Amino acid sequence: MDVATEEIICCAHGKGREHNFALFKRSALKIDESIEVLADKGYPGIKALQENSFIPIKKKKGQNLSKPERDYNRDLGRMSICIKHVTARLKRFRIFAGPYPNDVEVLGDVLI
Q1: Residue 2 contacts residue 9 (beta carbons within 8 Å)
Q2: Are 38 and 45 in contact (CB under 8 A)?
Q3: If DSSP codes are grouped into helix, strand and coil, which group holds residue 53?
């Protein structure tokens, strides 16, 4: 998704329930190196697949995050909130509620 325009650039789909990161790996989606990827904590191995990716820093058990780590996580959250808003809109209109009723090849055109 383009953060500035809130336009969905690419989407992948699968049959049944599948974790987002598993779907990302299976899709073998090639993202240009100039594009920054913002992901959440559910994508711990994305750095190996996409060099220009950013995920929040996890807190270690029994320790707290340092001030720079908290600031980094806060900045990532501010950048990725619009992605969560677009996903919420798609869910509100029940686009993800069940099987897609039309041809899957045109799904990307419908979401734009």
Answers
A1: yes
A2: no
A3: strand
Supply 51's token pair: 């060099």
Structure tokens that stand for 110 in this block = 């419908």
Residue 94 CA to residue 91 CA, distance in Å, equals 5
Tens of pLDDT, residues 37-92: 888 888 888 888 888 889 999 998 999 999 999 999 999 998 888 888 887 887 77
Query: What DSSP character marks residue 30?
Result: -
Nearest to 52 by CA among 74, 67, 78, 30: 30
Mean pLDDT over 13-25 rounds to 77
Copy the structure tokens of residue 50: 């996409």
